[in-house]
Amino acid sequence: MIGGLGRSSAAPLCAERRLLCSLFLAAALFGAASAATRRHDWDISYQFTSPDCVRKLAVTINGHTPGPTIRAVQGDTIVVNVKNSLLTENVAIHWHGIRQIGTPWADGTEGVTQCPILPGDTFTYTFVVDRPGTYMYHAHYGMQRSAGLNGMIVVEVAAGAGGAGEREPFRYDREHTVLLNDWWHRSTYEQAAGLASVPMVWVGEPQSLLINGRGRFVNCSSAAATAASCNVSHPDCAPAVFAVVPGKTYRFRIASVTSLSALNFEIEGHEMTVVEADGHYVKPFVVKNLNIYSGETYSVLITADQDPNRNYWLASNVVSRKPATPTGTAILTYYGGRSSPRARPPTPPPAGPAWNDTAYRVRQSLATVAHPAHAVAPPASSERTILLLNTQNKIDGRIKWALNNVSFTLPHTPYLVAMKRGLLGAFDQRPPPETYDGLAAYDVYAVQKNPNATTSDAPYRLRFGSVVDVVLQNANMLAANNSETHPWHLHGHDFWVLGYGAGRFDPAVHPATYNLKDPIMKNTVAVHPFGWTALRFRADNPGVWAFHCHIEAHFFMGMGIVFEEGVERVGDLPPEIMGCGKTRGDH
Amino acid sequence: MIGGLGRSSAAPLCAERRLLCSLFLAAALFGAASAATRRHDWDISYQFTSPDCVRKLAVTINGHTPGPTIRAVQGDTIVVNVKNSLLTENVAIHWHGIRQIGTPWADGTEGVTQCPILPGDTFTYTFVVDRPGTYMYHAHYGMQRSAGLNGMIVVEVAAGAGGAGEREPFRYDREHTVLLNDWWHRSTYEQAAGLASVPMVWVGEPQSLLINGRGRFVNCSSAAATAASCNVSHPDCAPAVFAVVPGKTYRFRIASVTSLSALNFEIEGHEMTVVEADGHYVKPFVVKNLNIYSGETYSVLITADQDPNRNYWLASNVVSRKPATPTGTAILTYYGGRSSPRARPPTPPPAGPAWNDTAYRVRQSLATVAHPAHAVAPPASSERTILLLNTQNKIDGRIKWALNNVSFTLPHTPYLVAMKRGLLGAFDQRPPPETYDGLAAYDVYAVQKNPNATTSDAPYRLRFGSVVDVVLQNANMLAANNSETHPWHLHGHDFWVLGYGAGRFDPAVHPATYNLKDPIMKNTVAVHPFGWTALRFRADNPGVWAFHCHIEAHFFMGMGIVFEEGVERVGDLPPEIMGCGKTRGDH
Question: What range does the record give for the signal peptide (chains A, B) (predicted)?
Answer without folding.
Answer: 1-35
